[in-house]
Known about the structure:
Arc Repressor Mutant, subunit A; DNA-binding; globular; about 110 residues; homodimer
Amino acid sequence: MAHGGDILRGHTETIILRILSEGDSYGYEISKNIIEGGEGVIDVKDATIYTAFKRMEEDGLLTTYWGDGVGGARRRYYKITPKGRELYAEKLAEWKKASRILDKLIVGGNK
Amino acid sequence: MAHGGDILRGHTETIILRILSEGDSYGYEISKNIIEGGEGVIDVKDATIYTAFKRMEEDGLLTTYWGDGVGGARRRYYKITPKGRELYAEKLAEWKKASRILDKLIVGGNK
DNA sequence: TTAACTATCTAAACAGATTATACACTTACC
DNA sequence: GGTAAGTGTATAATCTGTTTAGATAGTTAA
């Protein structure tokens, strides 16, 4: 993003988990998915996605397998684990509560 | 916070600016103010506040003066500058848009 | 006199994100 | 035949904001 680069920070994992909770996917697709949904305000760098994947695999939140790559570049797919689903549920609840509170703290009396 | 420590990240400045937009204040008070409004979900460490102040003063977002400290510990007050008000308005608008989009990306089809 | 609270401050470490770079294959166009 | 645009993965180095941990010091109440 041109400015406000930290918007996504801390939520990347949650968003990846949400996408994978709806079906297996791979880095490039997830990245496109987020940028598309970001409406020009939110951006993700591929490096962010891939480092998140690595971290999340180490944490047992997802597993990975190579796609058969018929006629095209190889794709590494990611699948959410039960632990990943659990964490997503927690993070989702946390976001719902936190965003309400954050809104209050940021907007304050400046309604 | 026990978990989810990054919730505030990137918003600390905006919240400080919001508080100062409603009147001069000092570190300890601002910190209390945020923790109180945080409803147990959001926490700020004093170091976060003071490092933010330093950064923000360097960026011309606020000015500072010592309180007269009659009967009590000395207090360093902070006053928002016009540049600070400008940035607050921008960040506020950004938050309003970003939180809506973030909500969409985090919740997705898991309504 | 001790505990709890008010109040400010800094150095070092940490975590997640970005920048920059590399590699490689496919499709469409000229 | 060449090349540009798009698809796709990956890592090292750097940046930034926050946390951890520590220091200092005055006030109030038990």
